[in-house]
Amino acid sequence: MVKTEDFELVKEEYNKLLAITRAESTIRKIVALIKYKLAKSRLLRERDIFIAERINQTLGPGETGIIFIGAVHKIKEKLPKGIQVVEIKDTKKVRKYQRLLPFHNKHKEEFDELGKYLVSVENLQLSVFNFVVFLPP
């Protein structure tokens, strides 16, 4: 097992989310939410860069790596060209399922279809997380 996350970045995101839930007034909640929204993309991008660098540093010749990662991550594009990525479930479908989740009643047919895809044994899938295999050249 190899640590692929930068704990400081994860902690920073956690603290920003925690500030929203712990705010004692509506105004403070809104301010905390705005601060989180402004930092969210940067934090995810920095985490993805760190994860891709760790994979590149630690995946040796002839080795296979496996990572369970949320579908919002975009590490595939940050990896060196020589590392082959095999997604067990289509990331776009996982992301679409997550976007539809709060509106599942309004988009019931599409939501149900995506849900069936995610739990199908065609490819293994755990919850709404993506399962990625890295293969060196």
Notes on the structure:
The protein has helices spanning 7-22, 26-58, 91-100, 108-119; strands at 65-70, 84-87, 129-135. The radius of gyration is 18 Å and the shape is flat. It is α+β, with helices and mostly antiparallel strands and 137 residues long. Strands 1-3-2 form a three-stranded antiparallel sheet, with no helix packed on it. The protein folds into two domains: 1-58; 65-137, no CATH class. Mean pLDDT is 85; it is low at 125-131.
SSE map:
Layout: H1 7-22, H2 26-58, E1 65-70, E2 84-87, H3 91-100, H4 108-119, E3 129-135
Antiparallel strand pairs: 1-3, 2-3
Helix pairs in contact: 1-2, 3-4
Summarize the structure.
This protein is α+β, with helices and mostly antiparallel strands and 137 residues long.
Strand order of the largest sheet: 1-3-2
Count, helices = 4
How many structural domains can be distinguished in the coordinates? Answer: 2
Give the end-to-end Cα distance, rounded to a whole number of Å. Answer: 21 Å
- Could you report the average pLDDT, rounded to the nearest whole number? 85
**Bulk shape:** flat
Structure class: alpha+beta
Largest sheet: 3 strands, antiparallel
**Considering DSSP H and I runs of 4 or more, what fraction of the residues is helical?**
40-55%
- Unreliable stretches (pLDDT < 50, length at least 5) are 125-131
Spatial extent as radius of gyration: 18 Å
Number of strands: 3
Task: Note the quaternary state here.
Answer: single chain
Query: What is the string of SSEs from the N terminus onward?
Result: HHEEHHE
What is the percentage of strand-forming residues? Answer: 5-15%
